[in-house]
Amino acid sequence: MSPKVIEITVDDKQGKNNVQIEGLWHYRPEDAKGGRRNFHGENELFLSNHVNTQLPESIEGKCNVRNFEEYLKLDDVEDTDYFYRMLYDPNTQQFNPNRLEVYDTLIS
């Protein structure tokens, strides 16, 4: 899972800067109901409605997550480029849309 940063807050209590990051989570197919399927692209994630707050130490790095149409327009796909085609609700384990058009082209 990887979060999209929504807000960074600093709470200066007792002379300590307590930084917190609110993030909107993206799920990897293997972390969602049904797991990874043959039609999922290697760099595919699911956008979710899961929001929570994390400490900065939990962030491993930066990546670029685009919708599928934007991803297809990239001239060069880097290791940090990902795309999403579906929304995923981890509480109900439901997808929106619940069906996808499958393409014959290779999605990496």
UniProtKB/TrEMBL annotation:
Residues 1-99 form the BAH domain. GO terms for molecular function: chromatin binding. Signal peptide: none annotated. It comes from the Eukaryota. It holds the Pfam family BAH. This is BAH domain-containing protein. It comes from Kalanchoe fedtschenkoi. The lineage of its organism: Eukaryota, Viridiplantae, Streptophyta, Embryophyta, Tracheophyta.
